[in-house]
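step=encode ok
step=design start
structure_in=
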C-alpha cells in the first residue's frame, strides 16, 4: 500500500471540510423548520459539526496505515432541541423531513433524515428525554423499539446503554442556533470550519 500523496491528502481534507459544510447547511435548514413548531423552545448544534475540525488519523486506508492525519470526519448532524411538551413529536419528524427535502431541491445537498439526530431536552436543567425517532410509525415493531421506555411518548426513541453527557452542552462545544424569544440566533453555515 503506497503512502498518500500531498494532493490526495489535500483532496481528503477538502472532502471533510465539504462534508461538515453540507451538514451545517442541513442544521440551518432543520433549525429554520423547527422554529415554526410551537413546542420548540430552543435549538443548538452539538457534536463535531458544531466545532472547528481537528486533525486526526482517520479510520480508513491508506491514511490509517501510514498514520497520516486529515481533518476529522463528521458522521452526522446532532441537534439538541428543547421542547415544552412531548405529545407532538411527529410534527418535528415531518418538519425535519420537509426541510431536508427542500435543501436537496434548492441546493442539491443530500442529507438523509437519519443523519440528523435530534436529542430532545426539557427545562433549564437540560433533562434528556430521548431522541426523535426516525421510523415512520411508533412503535414500528423493530428491535430498536424493544428498549424499555421507547415509544412511551410517541416517536421518542430510547437507546439501550446510552447516556447523554452534560459536557455535550459545554460552551466550547455548542452553537446556539434558535431561541423562541429571540428567533434565529446564528447560522451554523457561517461558522469557521477548521481550527
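sequence_out=
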Amino acid at each position: 500500500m503506497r503512502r498518500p500523496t500531498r494532493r490526495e491528502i489535500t483532496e481528503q481534507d477538502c472532502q471533510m471540510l465539504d462534508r461538515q459544510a453540507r451538514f451545517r447547511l442541513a442544521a440551518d435548514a432543520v433549525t429554520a423548520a423547527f422554529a415554526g413548531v410551537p413546542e420548540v423552545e430552543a435549538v443548538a448544534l452539538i457534536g463535531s459539526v458544531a466545532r472547528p475540525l481537528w486533525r486526526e488519523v482517520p479510520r480508513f486506508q491508506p491514511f490509517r496505515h501510514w498514520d497520516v492525519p486529515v481533518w476529522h470526519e463528521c458522521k452526522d448532524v446532532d441537534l439538541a432541541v428543547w421542547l415544552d411538551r412531548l405529545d407532538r413529536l411527529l410534527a418535528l419528524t415531518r418538519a425535519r423531513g420537509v426541510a431536508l427535502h427542500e435543501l436537496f431541491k434548492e441546493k442539491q445537498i443530500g442529507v438523509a433524515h437519519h443523519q440528523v439526530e435530534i436529542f430532545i431536552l426539557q427545562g433549564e436543567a437540560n433533562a434528556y428525554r430521548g431522541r426523535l425517532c426516525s421510523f415512520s410509525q411508533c412503535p414500528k415493531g423493530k428491535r430498536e423499539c424493544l428498549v424499555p421506555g421507547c415509544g412511551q411518548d410517541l416517536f421518542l426513541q430510547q437507546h439501550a446503554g446510552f447516556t447523554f453527557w452534560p459536557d455535550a452542552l459545554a460552551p466550547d462545544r455548542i452553537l446556539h442556533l434558535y431561541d423562541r424569544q429571540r428567533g434565529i440566533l446564528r447560522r451554523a453555515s457561517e461558522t469557521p470550519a477548521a481550527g
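step=design ok
step=annotate ok -> The CA atoms of residues 86 and 153 lie 7 Å apart.
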